[in-house]
């Protein structure tokens, strides 16, 4: 089994001064850390690179030239036979699965961010789509959030973790 920590839209330091402790504690504890963009500052990327065993990450629409020079628009990795793409934006929720199938025909799991809204669905092709929400900026959501994803024997198990308001 391979365990992933999945986050997006951290927006440090603009919308939060720091990441929640539970996210910081998981960085070195999981096998792979995935960040789906909108870091906002390079020190947060530095922290993830220093603390993670493996980091798979992309840039988001709020990320400037420094982050864009260090990260791809879409990152790809294979984990235990599961082909994963990580991108920031996928467009409106209506038609998302169809668009994902067209844009990522060779992917088993698409991880995305941007909306700050947790998402878990399956495209017609069988591709799983996951958005972890944001661990720092819940917007209209009741809680900030992130995902812990376990991959084993071709199976993807996603656990949405909610962060109490006092910590986010």
Automatic annotation (TrEMBL):
Any one GO molecular function term: metal ion binding
Q: What is its EC number?
A: 3.1.4.-
Keywords from the named record: Metal-binding
Cofactor dependence is on:
a divalent metal cation
The family database entries (Pfam families) matched by this protein are listed as: Metallophos_2 (PF12850)
Taxonomic superkingdom = Bacteria
Positions of the Calcineurin-like phosphoesterase domain: 3-152
**Coiled-coil ranges (or none):** none
The family note in this entry says:
Belongs to the metallophosphoesterase superfamily. YfcE family.
Q: What is this protein called?
A: Phosphoesterase
Q: Which organism is this protein's natural source?
A: Naasia lichenicola
